[in-house]
Design goal:
Layout (H helix, E strand, L loop, with lengths): L1 E5 L8 H11 L3 E6 L11 H13 L3 E7 L12 H21 L3 E4 L17 H22 L2 E5 L9 H11 L4 E6 L9 H8 L3 E6 L1 E2 L9 E2 L8 H10 L5 E4 L11 H13 L4
Parallel strand pairs: 1-2, 1-10, 2-3, 3-4, 4-5, 5-6, 6-7, 7-10
Antiparallel strand pairs: 8-9
Helix pairs in contact: 1-8, 3-4, 5-6, 6-7
Length: 279
């Protein structure tokens, strides 16, 4: 498996500085993100994106997938049609940016019934969410297929697709080789076991996020450093090996340290080496 790290793990710094730190810490690639602000936005030129790709290559790093923080602002299942269209436009832009950067995958949130940390108080009917999200992703699959970029649906705290069997069935209904799962190990621990999800999703898993979670803490405060929580990483690695997964695993370390924030990058790299059996 290849060792990567998500851009949100870093303190605020220029991408050139991110690449330097990631390389020094021993990572092989970085997962970037499309956002409202920063160096990669809806309006970033192709020329500037190619410069970012070149910067990463100068450090010997791969850019393999693209996240998007705006997915919490624009929902594929929103009641407002304009917002739904904006969500689709955003995902198409993700695909275009990923293509230019040399990534093969984008991370997408399929839809949300409710999210406690975004759009507080908004609740959308589950059946409606299912139907709207499925329809939107069936539409978007064509664009993904044309561009040769995978849409990978992440399991998140959105009260939607809450079991591995449901996620697996939902992806089957989209019916495209370019739509799969972006499996987040830490996100399922509050109500399940990541190794169970891995065994069920199998080769639908296109990318993997490594996080750790302390169940007793609860809520967002439960996310902790790798190997400091309750994720059974030996079981996770056994399951990933069992399905023949040899792609990217990306550390997504949120929140960062309050002081000496670069230290989390080195600590995470060391923990991932241990998990992956490299040391």
């Amino acid at each position: 498996m290849k060792k990567g790290i998500n851009i949100w793990s870093f303190p605020e710094m220029k991408l050139s500085e991110v690449f330097a730190l990631a390389k020094d810490a021993g990572f092989e690639g970085v997962e970037l993100a499309l956002g409202h602000t920063g160096e990669i936005t809806m309006d970033t030129s192709d020329e500037d994106l190619l410069k970012i790709k070149e910067q990463a290559e100068e450090y010997g790093l791969e850019l393999y997938s693209l996240s998007c923080g705006m997915c919490w602002d624009y929902w594929l299942n929103a009641d407002d049609e304009e917002e739904r269209e904006q969500a689709k436009k955003m995902i198409k832009r993700q695909i275009d940016v990923a293509k230019i950067l040399g990534c093969d995958t984008i991370l997408v949130i399929a839809g949300s019934v409710s999210v406690e940390f975004a759009h507080v108080g908004r609740v959308i009917d589950y059946k409606t969410t299912y139907e709207r999200s499925l329809s939107a992703l069936r539409e978007l699959r064509t664009y993904a297929e044309e561009k040769g970029i995978y849409i990978a649906l992440e399991n998140v705290w959105n009260k939607f697709l809450v079991s591995p069997i449901e996620m697996n069935d939902f992806i089957d209904k989209i019916d495209s080789p370019y739509v799969g799962s972006y499996f987040d190990v830490g996100n399922v621990l509050f109500n399940g076991y990541p190794e169970h999800w891995i065994n069920i999703l199998g080769n639908k898993i296109k990318k993997v996020h490594f996080k750790d979670y302390r169940i007793q803490a609860g809520g967002l405060h439960g996310f902790v450093d790798l190997l400091a929580g309750d994720v059974n990483y030996p079981a996770v690695i056994k399951a990933l090996n069992g399905i023949g997964y040899d792609g990217w695993v990306s550390a997504e370390m949120i929140p960062n340290y309050k002081y000496y924030s670069d230290t989390i990058i080195y600590n995470t790299s060391n923990a991932m080496d241990k998990i992956l059996g490299r040391k």
